[in-house]
Design brief:
This protein is mostly helical. The protein has 16 helices and two strands. The protein has helices at 2-15, 19-24, 53-62, 70-83, 86-90, 93-102, 113-118, 121-137, 141-145, 148-161, 163-166, 171-186, 193-197, 200-206, 228-232, 265-274; strands at residues 214-218, 260-264.
């Protein structure tokens, strides 16, 4: 979908429009930096003008011993209820990067029942690295030990531009650089590897897929249950709109009866109830 690709590109630019930050190797600290963008985008990226919801949630949990992170929970709930994994399909720069890598012509690993099972790993990462480790060990577990977006968007540019940071490189940065390299290379062969198996933000948003206001909807009167949409989808969906659906709408292109649409789901439900 050309329209979706344009939205993805615009989103990536808007998230990281502090161009001078890349040249200076500095992090933007303006007044809007405290606001969260919907998708995964590292706070420490020199171009970032907003905060990452995952990083902000972990930071809030670090201080939750003294107060509940109402702001972050509210923001994430708002994103989830309105958009669900539409954010993954349209508003995540790291998702765009993976899709561009997958376009490189090579043999591809197709989805199977095993990839569907592996998709559960991201829920474990959400629970352990985003919630439990910050609460118990007071460490932002996902950002510190895993996040490849943080390494590529923040760590690498800052290290390149700052000699003082290069002298501080240790095993942790080397580990994250290795992990990011593996994910990047594997994304050439596996569609959205990080989104499907690792990303805890996608895991959180998936909890709202069935109730989100915007997203993919199927007209049951037109649907013939041919299964073409599920077979053509490269995510590990069992049904359009389930937890693994990133609401990209590409299934519209292959539906023979035009039963699939992308928009405001609530409006369709209201019209049906009025009939």
């Amino acid at each position: 979908m050309k329209r979706r690709r344009i939205i993805q590109l615009i989103t990536a630019v808007l998230y990281n429009c502090n161009i001078t930050g890349f040249a200076k190797g500095t992090i933007y600290q303006g007044s809007v930096k405290g606001l969260c963008v919907p998708g995964l985008n590292c706070y420490s990226c020199p171009g970032a003008v907003g905060a990452c919801p995952l990083g902000s949630l972990q930071s809030a949990l670090l201080s939750s011993k003294y107060k509940l992170p109402y702001y972050m929970l509210g923001i994430l709930l708002l994103f989830g209820i309105f958009l669900g994994r539409v954010i993954c399909g349209f508003l995540c720069p790291f998702g765009l990067l993976q899709e561009l890598l997958y376009m490189i012509p090579t043999k591809k690993l197709k989805k199977s029942r095993w990839t569907r099972r592996l998709s559960l790993i991201k829920y474990v990462i959400l629970a352990v690295f985003v919630i439990i480790i910050p609460l118990i060990l007071a460490v932002p577990g996902f950002c510190k030990f895993i996040c490849p977006a943080g390494t590529l968007e923040g760590g690498v540019p800052l290290v390149i531009m700052n000699e003082s940071l290069r002298r501080l490189i240790g095993w942790l940065f080397s580990w994250k650089l290795l992990l990011a390299a593996v994910i990047i290379i594997a994304s050439v062969f596996i569609f959205r590897l990080f989104c499907r198996f690792i990303c805890p933000l996608g895991a959180f948003y998936s909890l709202f897929n069935r109730i989100s206001i915007f997203g993919v909807k199927v007209d049951e009167h037109k649907c013939t249950n041919c299964g073409m949409c599920v077979r053509q989808c490269r995510m590990d969906v069992n049904k359009i709109g389930d937890r693994e659906c990133i609401q990209c709408g590409e299934c519209k292109e292959v539906c023979p009866t035009g039963a699939v649409t992308l928009g405001v789901k609530k409006a369709v439900q209201i019209r049906k109830s009025d009939v």
